[in-house]
Design brief:
Elements (H helix, E strand, L loop, with lengths): L1 H16 L1 E3 L5 E3 L1 H30 L5 E2 L5 E5 L12 E10 L4 E4 L6 E4 L7 H7 L7 E6 L20 E11 L2
Antiparallel strand pairs: 1-2, 3-4, 4-8, 5-6, 5-7, 5-9, 8-9
Length: about 180
């Protein structure tokens, strides 16, 4: 976690260092150079996150876990009692969110599952991607890199900045719209 924060601080210093002097000694940011350096920094952060996720998968022996193009790692199992989740469906689920070190951040209460409209937003983009991989009645484990979870700042409560999140989900009901 500290490495990520250090990389973000380096990015800020790089941006400040990208200023060039003009003839009138005013400082101007070179947007192309700044963009290239931020893209490079972003690639480094994504690679570091992926290394941590892959090490977690190996430690936990999560055989069969896959990665989609967006960087969401997923493993879905269980008998399906219904149809594939689609955008505009309402899903009802139980979940537990932990960090890679096992620290529990949030979980649904047994008598109060989470319900949301898929595609509307209001939840982590990685959670929306996750339920779209499921069918009614299935369970899954999903690992969200920061860009699919709470990003650079966390949630200002239990999820720290640049956190990789592990979602354990039980999809209880899919209501077709």
């Amino acid at each position: 976690m500290q490495n990520k924060i250090i990389l973000v601080l380096i990015a800020i210093f790089v941006l400040v260092g990208c200023r060039q002097k003009t003839n009138d000694n005013a400082k101007v940011l070179n947007p192309n150079e700044a963009r290239k350096q931020l893209e490079h920094l972003n690639r480094l952060l994504v690679e570091k996150d992926k290394e941590q996720i892959e090490a977690y998968i190996e430690r936990q022996q999560l055989v069969g876990m896959q990665e989609n193009k967006a960087g969401l790692f997923y493993l879905v199992w269980g008998e399906s009692t219904g149809e594939q989740v689609e955008t505009n469906d309402i899903v009802v689920l139980n979940y537990k969110i932990t960090l890679l070190d096992g620290t529990e951040c949030y979980k649904t209460k047994s008598n109060k599952p989470k319900e949301f409209l898929v595609g509307k937003g209001g939840v982590e983009s990685g959670l929306e991607m996750a339920v779209l991989l499921m069918k009614d009645g299935q369970k899954g484990k999903f690992i969200l890199p920061p860009h699919l979870g709470h990003g650079l700042i966390g949630d200002n409560d239990k999820i720290p900045p640049l956190a990789i999140l592990v979602f354990d989900i039980e999809l209880l009901t899919v209501i077709k719209n």
